[in-house]
Amino acid sequence: MEGKENQDHSHDVLLAYFNFLSGMITFIIVFCSLMILVVGALLLLLQFWIQQKVKKAVCEKKNDDKQLCVGFFHPYCNAGGGGERVLWTAIKALQMKYSYVECIVYTGDTDATSEEILSQVEARFNIQLTKPVEFVFLTRRRWVEASMYPYFTLLGQSLGSMYLAFEALFMFVPDVYIDSMGYAFTLPLFKYFGGCRIACYVHYPMISTDMLERVSHQLEAHNNRFFISRSPLLSAFKLRYYQMFASLYGLVGRCSDIVLVNSSWTQGHILSLWNLPSITFLVYPPCDVKELKNISLEKNSIKSDCLKIISIGQFRPEKDHPLQIKAFNEFLKRSEQTIQPMKLVIVGSCRNKEDEERVNQLQDLCYSLDIVQNVEFKINISYSDLLLEMKEAVIGLHTMWNEHFGIGVVECMAAGLITIAHNSGGPKLDIVVEYNGKPTGFLAHDEKTYADAFDTVIKLTKEEQLQIRKNARASVSRFSEEEFQSSFLSAIEHLIRPKSKKD
Description:
Helix 2 (82-97) packs across helix 18 (481-492), helix 6 (209-216) runs antiparallel to helix 8 (232-253) and helix 11 crosses helix 16. The strands form 2 sheets. The protein has a 7-stranded parallel beta sheet with strand order 3-2-1-4-5-6-7, with helices on both faces. A 6-stranded parallel beta sheet has the order 10-9-8-11-12-13, sandwiched between helices. The protein is 51% helix and 13% strand. The protein is an alpha/beta fold. Strand 6, helix 9 and strand 7 (280-282) form a beta-alpha-beta unit. The relative contact order is 0.10. The protein is built from 18 helices and 13 strands.
């Protein structure tokens, strides 16, 4: 009898436990359902409020049935780099072809006025716009700064870009939204909340199979710190994090109506991640090769008092300026018996204090190698000064691993410089390739191979050097501003249709 009572008691306990568990599961399901409904309702209200702002903005336009507003999301529009040349050349192309298009730029450059920004555009890129451009100044740009996120930087910057995009949406909603700087996580916000037609120009995929391979093989890099690369556990965790981020990146990227990519290398990665082959177009970035081609190919610097090597690029960690300095130092050691002095001129733009600190570190590296007298830094110089530097140089230098394209490489080749670029990415696949069956430059990957390339160049005869310069210059016509404008307008043509009353 006692055993039966114990059995009944255990049955009652199990039944009570089962009922409690069932009640908790029901509560969780109901609670989650209510939360989803509440969040969904809030999102719908937010979308409705933003759409009302669109209607109000449209009604305030003088010619609301035809005028079309194209908004470019470019938080660093005053940086003066290759991405900014793409931005301003695209705006100029739209202004020249479509009289009904009004362009606005979302920027975080609150330390400059509209006039100062446009003046910098003309001075740095020699671009003169045919119509005014409106600027929407954003105050929360710091949320996309890498310094804000010492860990989980990719995810942090992506979420930060969404926060910045909401600020942009609240201030003005365009008809067509173009992300021209690579903030893919802003695309769904403008598409679903702003009701915009969506295009993007991808300079560099936020994540790539190359990054995944570096982490899986535990290779140290500027985006894979030493203590992580040396730990199998941390490397495995980071690899999983990268894989999850790649899935999210693909999800937001597929919100695009048109995708433009700047190189074969970028195209391969974006097709793999976003899987939008029918709307993905290869549009090489514009390079100002017209004036550069006016520079004489008969370089006199080899016979002058100093042989100059020039590097062009923003002072960012991925550009790997330390490799340039170390390779040049190796070259100088080999050339101690050479009577002719040699100089490395590093030309670049600084966007912020972090970039300025990198320049200071590079200068310290020159002091430690005792070559400070052989290395010169030219920071934020004008376009006319850049032309002067290129006229005096003999060799163009580029060291970024997996550079997405390499506008600086093209500029050097157009200017008649014998270019030595990194054996990867855009330079390897699209730029420093044979043209008419003949070489257009040299490729390298470390201190030794760069120094070897320097040796090869200076040992070439004058006739051999001239042949390479001529071939390189002829090859860069593919990257002219005219070619970019034609390809860009052709790719986005159906997005830039005039507004109708229905719209």
